[in-house]
């Protein structure tokens, strides 16, 4: 059987706010670092570029001014990758920030869309669907206005197709935000 997107999993760990060493210190806000660890081996170019996108996305929602001169480190460990990995990382990052109780202006989620050779949109594509796709787009969408905080595209697509993918992603985001709310509710109803 083919793996479903549910077979992609990422573990998030958040450390800090802690003291910053040397030149990384920012006098007016916390420094945010994101480390992406692949399932096997050492992080490479792909992980580095994804770390930047993840960091920029997190920085847009974390109220870092409350913890100046400190460092917050988010470590994302890939446990399994069956496709749509970047959106899984975005979701793990947001859940990690939320779970750590950091003050956030909004939540965000990641949605990956693939355009298959016929131009149809596939949400949460598997690794095979990503390989066969003409383009793969991942959006980070905020929970307040459903606006795009960051986006990445691999392959080629028209502006119109990108718009169609975005609309599909924004629709899918509602389901993810509902999942966040349910998870938080379950966590606090247990305690």
Q: How would you describe this protein?
A:
The N terminus is likely disordered. The strands form two sheets. This protein has a four-stranded antiparallel beta sheet with strand order 5-4-6-7, sandwiched between helices. It has a single domain, classed as GHMP Kinase, N-terminal domain (Ribosomal Protein S5, domain 2). The chain contains four helices and seven strands. The chain is 37% helix and 29% strand. α1 crosses α2. The termini are far apart. It is globular, with a radius of gyration of 17 Å. The protein has 191 residues and is of the alpha+beta class.
Secondary-structure map:
Layout: E1 9-19, E2 31-37, H1 45-61, E3 70-80, H2 85-99, E4 108-115, E5 121-123, H3 127-132, E6 135-142, E7 148-155, H4 159-190
Parallel strand pairs: 2-3
Antiparallel strand pairs: 1-3, 4-5, 4-6, 6-7
Taken in chain order, the helices and strands follow as EEHEHEEHEEH
Helix content: 25-40%
Number of E-state strands: 7
Describe the global form: globular
CATH class assignment: Alpha Beta
Strand fraction: 25-35%
Rg on CA atoms, Å: 17 Å
CATH superfamily name?
GHMP Kinase, N-terminal domain
CATH architecture: 2-Layer Sandwich
Major sheet, described briefly?
Answer: 4 strands, antiparallel
| Beginning-to-end CA distance, first to last residue | 39 Å
Per the CATH scheme, the topology name is Ribosomal Protein S5, domain 2
Low-pLDDT segments: 1-5
Domain Exoribonuclease phosphorolytic: 6-103, 107-171
Family: Belongs to the RNase PH family.
GO molecular function: DNA binding; RNA binding
Keywords: Cytoplasm, DNA-binding, Exosome, Nucleus, Phosphoprotein, rRNA processing
């Amino acid at each position: 059987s083919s793996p479903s997107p549910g077979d992609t999993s990422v573990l998030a760990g958040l450390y800090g706010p802690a003291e910053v060493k040397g030149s990384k210190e920012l006098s007016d806000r916390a420094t945010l670092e994101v480390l992406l660890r692949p399932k096997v081996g050492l992080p490479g170019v792909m992980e580095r570029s994804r770390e930047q996108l993840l960091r920029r996305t997190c920085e847009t929602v974390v109220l870092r001014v409350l913890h100046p001169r400190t460092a917050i480190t988010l470590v994302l460990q890939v446990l399994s990758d069956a496709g749509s990995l970047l959106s899984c990382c975005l979701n793990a990052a947001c859940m990690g920030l939320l779970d750590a109780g950091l003050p956030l202006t909004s939540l965000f989620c990641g949605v990956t869309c693939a355009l298959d050779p016929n131009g149809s949109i596939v949400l949460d594509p598997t690794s095979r669907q990503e390989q066969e796709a003409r383009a793969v787009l991942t959006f980070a969408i905020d929970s307040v206005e459903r606006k795009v905080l960051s986006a990445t595209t691999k392959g080629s697509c028209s502006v119109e197709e990108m718009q169609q993918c975005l609309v599909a992603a924004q629709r899918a985001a509602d389901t993810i935000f509902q999942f966040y709310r349910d998870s938080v509710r379950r966590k606090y109803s247990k305690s």
